[in-house]
Amino acid sequence: MEATTASQKHTKGAVVFDLMGTCTDWKSSIVASLQQQPPTGVDIPSLAAAWRSGFFTEILSRFERGEPQEDIDITHRRVLDTLLKEAGISLNVWGDGVRQNLVDSWHHQTAKAKTILGWPDSVPGIELLKQDYFVVVLANGTTRLQMDIVKSTGLPFHSLFSSQLLQLTKPDPQMYLRAVELLNLNPSDCIMVAAHAYDLRAAAKIGMKTVYIQRNTEDLTEDMDQIRTEFDAFVDGTTGDLNGGIPAVAALLKQGI
Protein backbone atom coordinates (compact mmCIF):
# COMPACT_ATOMS: atom_id res chain seq x y z
CA MET A 1 0.00 0.00 0.00
CA GLU A 2 1.31 3.44 -0.91
CA ALA A 3 2.03 5.74 2.03
CA THR A 4 0.56 9.24 2.22
CA THR A 5 2.52 11.94 4.04
CA ALA A 6 1.14 15.06 5.69
CA SER A 7 2.47 17.24 2.86
CA GLN A 8 0.60 15.16 0.26
CA LYS A 9 -2.76 15.96 1.88
CA HIS A 10 -2.53 19.60 0.79
CA THR A 11 -2.72 18.86 -2.95
CA LYS A 12 -4.47 16.41 -5.24
CA GLY A 13 -1.08 15.54 -6.66
CA ALA A 14 0.95 16.80 -9.60
CA VAL A 15 0.45 17.31 -13.30
CA VAL A 16 3.77 16.76 -15.02
CA PHE A 17 4.26 18.26 -18.48
CA ASP A 18 6.62 17.75 -21.31
CA LEU A 19 7.57 21.20 -22.62
CA MET A 20 8.51 21.74 -26.28
CA GLY A 21 5.78 20.62 -28.64
CA THR A 22 3.40 19.85 -25.79
CA CYS A 23 3.17 23.37 -24.34
CA THR A 24 4.98 25.38 -27.02
CA ASP A 25 4.68 25.85 -30.76
CA TRP A 26 8.38 25.42 -31.50
CA LYS A 27 7.86 25.15 -35.26
CA SER A 28 6.43 28.63 -35.87
CA SER A 29 9.28 30.27 -34.00
CA ILE A 30 12.09 28.16 -35.48
CA VAL A 31 10.76 28.62 -39.03
CA ALA A 32 10.65 32.38 -38.43
CA SER A 33 14.23 32.34 -37.18
CA LEU A 34 15.44 30.31 -40.17
CA GLN A 35 13.67 32.67 -42.56
CA GLN A 36 15.62 35.62 -41.15
CA GLN A 37 18.91 34.13 -42.34
CA PRO A 38 20.57 34.64 -45.77
CA PRO A 39 18.54 32.78 -48.44
CA THR A 40 19.82 29.37 -49.50
CA GLY A 41 17.03 27.90 -51.63
CA VAL A 42 16.37 25.24 -49.00
CA ASP A 43 12.77 24.58 -48.01
CA ILE A 44 12.66 26.19 -44.58
CA PRO A 45 9.69 24.34 -43.01
CA SER A 46 11.22 21.03 -44.10
CA LEU A 47 14.58 22.03 -42.61
CA ALA A 48 12.90 22.94 -39.31
CA ALA A 49 11.06 19.62 -39.21
CA ALA A 50 14.24 17.69 -40.01
CA TRP A 51 16.09 19.58 -37.28
CA ARG A 52 13.49 18.62 -34.69
CA SER A 53 13.34 15.02 -35.90
CA GLY A 54 17.13 14.77 -35.89
CA PHE A 55 17.23 16.01 -32.32
CA PHE A 56 14.86 13.26 -31.18
CA THR A 57 16.90 10.65 -33.05
CA GLU A 58 20.06 11.86 -31.33
CA ILE A 59 18.76 11.85 -27.77
CA LEU A 60 17.04 8.49 -28.13
CA SER A 61 20.17 6.97 -29.69
CA ARG A 62 22.29 8.27 -26.81
CA PHE A 63 19.82 6.80 -24.34
CA GLU A 64 19.82 3.40 -26.07
CA ARG A 65 23.64 3.38 -26.05
CA GLY A 66 23.69 4.18 -22.34
CA GLU A 67 25.49 7.48 -22.86
CA PRO A 68 25.03 10.40 -20.45
CA GLN A 69 22.63 13.23 -21.27
CA GLU A 70 24.15 16.02 -23.35
CA ASP A 71 23.68 19.79 -23.38
CA ILE A 72 20.77 20.34 -25.75
CA ASP A 73 22.61 23.21 -27.46
CA ILE A 74 25.43 20.86 -28.44
CA THR A 75 22.92 18.36 -29.83
CA HIS A 76 21.02 21.03 -31.75
CA ARG A 77 24.23 22.42 -33.24
CA ARG A 78 25.52 19.00 -34.33
CA VAL A 79 22.20 18.09 -35.97
CA LEU A 80 22.00 21.49 -37.69
CA ASP A 81 25.56 21.21 -39.02
CA THR A 82 24.80 17.76 -40.42
CA LEU A 83 21.61 18.93 -42.14
CA LEU A 84 23.28 21.99 -43.63
CA LYS A 85 26.19 19.91 -44.92
CA GLU A 86 23.74 17.50 -46.56
CA ALA A 87 21.97 20.49 -48.15
CA GLY A 88 25.25 21.90 -49.47
CA ILE A 89 25.17 24.97 -47.20
CA SER A 90 28.74 25.71 -46.20
CA LEU A 91 30.14 27.85 -43.40
CA ASN A 92 30.75 30.51 -46.04
CA VAL A 93 26.97 30.79 -46.50
CA TRP A 94 25.75 30.29 -42.93
CA GLY A 95 28.75 30.89 -40.70
CA ASP A 96 29.29 30.11 -37.03
CA GLY A 97 27.49 33.27 -35.94
CA VAL A 98 24.37 32.45 -37.93
CA ARG A 99 24.35 28.87 -36.72
CA GLN A 100 24.78 29.86 -33.08
CA ASN A 101 21.93 32.36 -33.40
CA LEU A 102 19.75 29.58 -34.75
CA VAL A 103 20.64 27.31 -31.84
CA ASP A 104 19.91 30.18 -29.45
CA SER A 105 16.49 30.66 -31.05
CA TRP A 106 15.31 27.51 -29.28
CA HIS A 107 15.79 29.43 -26.03
CA HIS A 108 14.42 32.93 -26.32
CA GLN A 109 13.43 35.89 -28.43
CA THR A 110 16.15 37.68 -30.35
CA ALA A 111 16.03 40.88 -32.39
CA LYS A 112 15.32 39.01 -35.61
CA ALA A 113 13.39 35.95 -34.50
CA LYS A 114 10.07 35.27 -32.87
CA THR A 115 10.04 33.76 -29.44
CA ILE A 116 9.14 30.15 -28.76
CA LEU A 117 5.37 30.52 -28.69
CA GLY A 118 3.09 28.85 -26.22
CA TRP A 119 0.06 27.19 -27.77
CA PRO A 120 -2.89 29.53 -27.06
CA ASP A 121 -4.44 27.08 -24.59
CA SER A 122 -1.25 26.53 -22.56
CA VAL A 123 -1.23 29.45 -20.12
CA PRO A 124 -4.97 29.40 -19.27
CA GLY A 125 -4.92 25.62 -18.97
CA ILE A 126 -1.94 25.58 -16.62
CA GLU A 127 -3.57 28.28 -14.49
CA LEU A 128 -6.67 26.09 -14.15
CA LEU A 129 -4.62 23.06 -13.15
CA LYS A 130 -2.70 25.05 -10.54
CA GLN A 131 -5.90 25.51 -8.56
CA ASP A 132 -5.74 21.86 -7.52
CA TYR A 133 -2.33 20.48 -8.46
CA PHE A 134 1.36 21.13 -8.46
CA VAL A 135 2.15 21.75 -12.14
CA VAL A 136 5.71 21.07 -13.24
CA VAL A 137 7.87 20.42 -16.28
CA LEU A 138 9.79 17.18 -16.79
CA ALA A 139 11.69 17.36 -20.06
CA ASN A 140 14.97 16.60 -21.74
CA GLY A 141 17.31 19.56 -22.08
CA THR A 142 19.06 22.02 -19.82
CA THR A 143 17.59 23.97 -16.96
CA ARG A 144 18.63 27.20 -18.69
CA LEU A 145 16.69 26.19 -21.81
CA GLN A 146 13.59 25.58 -19.72
CA MET A 147 13.99 28.87 -17.84
CA ASP A 148 14.41 30.80 -21.09
CA ILE A 149 11.33 29.20 -22.64
CA VAL A 150 9.21 29.80 -19.54
CA LYS A 151 10.37 33.41 -19.37
CA SER A 152 9.61 34.09 -23.03
CA THR A 153 6.21 32.37 -23.04
CA GLY A 154 4.93 33.21 -19.57
CA LEU A 155 4.09 29.56 -18.91
CA PRO A 156 3.31 29.60 -15.15
CA PHE A 157 4.81 26.34 -13.91
CA HIS A 158 5.54 25.70 -10.24
CA SER A 159 8.86 24.01 -10.96
CA LEU A 160 11.15 22.78 -13.74
CA PHE A 161 12.88 19.39 -13.84
CA SER A 162 15.40 19.06 -16.66
CA SER A 163 17.44 16.06 -17.74
CA GLN A 164 20.51 18.15 -16.92
CA LEU A 165 19.28 18.72 -13.37
CA LEU A 166 18.32 15.08 -12.75
CA GLN A 167 21.29 13.69 -14.73
CA LEU A 168 18.91 11.32 -16.48
CA THR A 169 17.22 11.23 -19.90
CA LYS A 170 13.66 10.43 -20.88
CA PRO A 171 12.44 7.76 -21.50
CA ASP A 172 14.57 6.30 -18.68
CA PRO A 173 12.01 5.26 -16.01
CA GLN A 174 14.42 6.51 -13.36
CA MET A 175 13.92 10.07 -14.56
CA TYR A 176 10.18 9.90 -13.92
CA LEU A 177 10.72 8.20 -10.57
CA ARG A 178 13.23 10.83 -9.49
CA ALA A 179 10.80 13.64 -10.32
CA VAL A 180 8.04 11.91 -8.36
CA GLU A 181 10.39 11.50 -5.39
CA LEU A 182 11.33 15.19 -5.48
CA LEU A 183 7.63 16.07 -5.47
CA ASN A 184 7.21 13.83 -2.39
CA LEU A 185 4.33 12.04 -4.09
CA ASN A 186 3.47 8.55 -5.23
CA PRO A 187 3.48 7.77 -8.98
CA SER A 188 -0.28 7.20 -8.88
CA ASP A 189 -0.72 10.79 -7.63
CA CYS A 190 1.02 12.16 -10.73
CA ILE A 191 -0.36 12.66 -14.23
CA MET A 192 2.06 12.88 -17.16
CA VAL A 193 0.83 15.07 -20.03
CA ALA A 194 2.69 14.98 -23.32
CA ALA A 195 2.32 15.14 -27.08
CA HIS A 196 4.81 12.27 -27.44
CA ALA A 197 3.69 8.68 -27.09
CA TYR A 198 7.16 7.40 -26.12
CA ASP A 199 7.11 9.78 -23.15
CA LEU A 200 3.76 8.55 -21.86
CA ARG A 201 4.65 4.90 -22.40
CA ALA A 202 7.65 5.34 -20.11
CA ALA A 203 5.63 7.24 -17.48
CA ALA A 204 2.95 4.54 -17.46
CA LYS A 205 5.56 1.90 -16.65
CA ILE A 206 6.19 3.46 -13.24
CA GLY A 207 2.49 3.87 -12.44
CA MET A 208 1.83 7.47 -13.46
CA LYS A 209 -1.49 8.31 -15.08
CA THR A 210 -1.14 9.45 -18.68
CA VAL A 211 -2.87 12.06 -20.84
CA TYR A 212 -1.98 12.39 -24.50
CA ILE A 213 -2.46 15.86 -25.98
CA GLN A 214 -2.39 15.91 -29.76
CA ARG A 215 -0.45 18.78 -31.35
CA ASN A 216 -0.07 19.57 -35.05
CA THR A 217 3.73 19.41 -34.91
CA GLU A 218 4.23 16.20 -32.94
CA ASP A 219 4.13 12.41 -33.43
CA LEU A 220 3.33 12.70 -37.12
CA THR A 221 4.16 9.03 -37.71
CA GLU A 222 2.12 7.66 -34.80
CA ASP A 223 -1.26 5.98 -35.35
CA MET A 224 -3.68 8.36 -33.63
CA ASP A 225 -6.45 5.76 -33.60
CA GLN A 226 -4.19 3.58 -31.46
CA ILE A 227 -3.07 6.52 -29.33
CA ARG A 228 -6.69 7.40 -28.48
CA THR A 229 -7.13 4.12 -26.62
CA GLU A 230 -3.59 3.46 -25.39
CA PHE A 231 -3.46 6.04 -22.59
CA ASP A 232 -5.74 7.05 -19.73
CA ALA A 233 -7.07 10.03 -21.68
CA PHE A 234 -6.72 11.71 -25.08
CA VAL A 235 -7.17 15.44 -25.70
CA ASP A 236 -7.30 17.28 -29.03
CA GLY A 237 -4.96 20.25 -28.90
CA THR A 238 -4.86 20.97 -32.62
CA THR A 239 -7.75 23.37 -33.12
CA GLY A 240 -6.59 26.48 -31.26
CA ASP A 241 -9.80 26.35 -29.22
CA LEU A 242 -9.16 27.81 -25.77
CA ASN A 243 -11.51 25.21 -24.31
CA GLY A 244 -9.48 22.42 -25.87
CA GLY A 245 -5.89 21.44 -25.24
CA ILE A 246 -4.71 21.93 -21.67
CA PRO A 247 -8.01 23.41 -20.38
CA ALA A 248 -9.61 20.17 -21.58
CA VAL A 249 -7.02 18.27 -19.53
CA ALA A 250 -8.09 20.30 -16.48
CA ALA A 251 -11.74 19.49 -17.17
CA LEU A 252 -10.97 15.77 -17.45
CA LEU A 253 -9.12 15.77 -14.16
CA LYS A 254 -12.05 17.51 -12.49
CA GLN A 255 -14.21 14.60 -13.62
CA GLY A 256 -11.58 12.04 -12.68
CA ILE A 257 -9.66 9.77 -15.02
Automatic annotation (TrEMBL):
Is the keyword tRNA-binding in the record? no
Source organism (scientific name): Mycena albidolilacea
Entry's Gene Ontology molecular function annotations:
phosphatase activity
InterPro entries for the chain: HAD-like_sf, HAD-SF_hydro_IA, HAD_sf, PGP-like_dom2, S-2-haloacid_dehalogenase
Pfam families, alphabetized? Hydrolase
Which UniProt keywords are present, listed alphabetically? Hydrolase
Designated name of the protein: HAD-like domain-containing protein
